[in-house]
Structures are given as C-alpha cells and as structure tokens.
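New to this. Help decode the following:
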Amino acid sequence: MIKLKGKKMKQVALITTILITSSFIIYPTKVFSQNAPSYVPGYWQPEAQAADPKKPITIKILNETGTTLNYSLVPETERFLPAGRSTNIRVDLQAIPNSYGTVNIYNDSLLTYEYAEEGNVVTVRVTPGSESTDHKAVYISPTGRMYSF
C-alpha cells in the first residue's frame, strides 16, 4: 500500500475529483424538457410542428368521433369523412398567400384534436370533445407550427 503525505495527497484528491466530474461533462445524461413556471396553456400554444415548412405538409385526419366529419383546406370545397376512416390533406404553405394555412375539421359535436408528428406528416386524431377542448380548425403558421381553434 502506498502512503501519501500532505501536498501529494491533496494533488491525488484534486486529480480524482477532476476525473470524476469530467465524466459528467463527457457523458451527459438525457434531460426531458419541462414547461417553464410561467407557461400558460391555451390556444396560443402550438400543438405540433412540421419539420420543414418550406416543403409540402401532409395533414392526416383520423376520424374517431363515431360520426361523420366535415373537412376542407380553406378555400377548397368542403368534404366529408365517415366515422372510423382517415384522409390526407396536402398543404403547401409556399403556394398559399401569406403562407398561412387553415384546415377546417368539424361537425355538430364537440371535438378534441390530438397531434402526432413525423417529419412533415402530422396526424390529427379527432375524438369526441368537451366544452374546454372544443376544436373546429387547424391553423398552420408560416413556420409550420400548428394550433387548434
């Protein structure tokens, strides 16, 4: 066994401390994002984000309401989506004046939208809603952020 005295022992302790703490810098751990204490939920918070808004975005609507939905990309003609079915809508923000897109998805019932995104494909799962979650349209900003209204 090696016996260390005084200054030598302090140097070994310092080197050991540096090696241990540097391993945290070299091997960072995954940290999940959290809402800031000032976060306030509401319609002004984006629900989803397309990966590249300069390319066409596909909105996939899944109708899980039990009733037929009306849908359209403004200003196109209104269409109908039977219960249990899905459809795709292609949104090219570059071809729309001011680069804002609106997809109306509604019927006479209260609706809730749930979003899932993968690249430029955004799935909107439409389910029965409540007064606090009644949605009628998906608004797409020029940056590809999507909001429920």
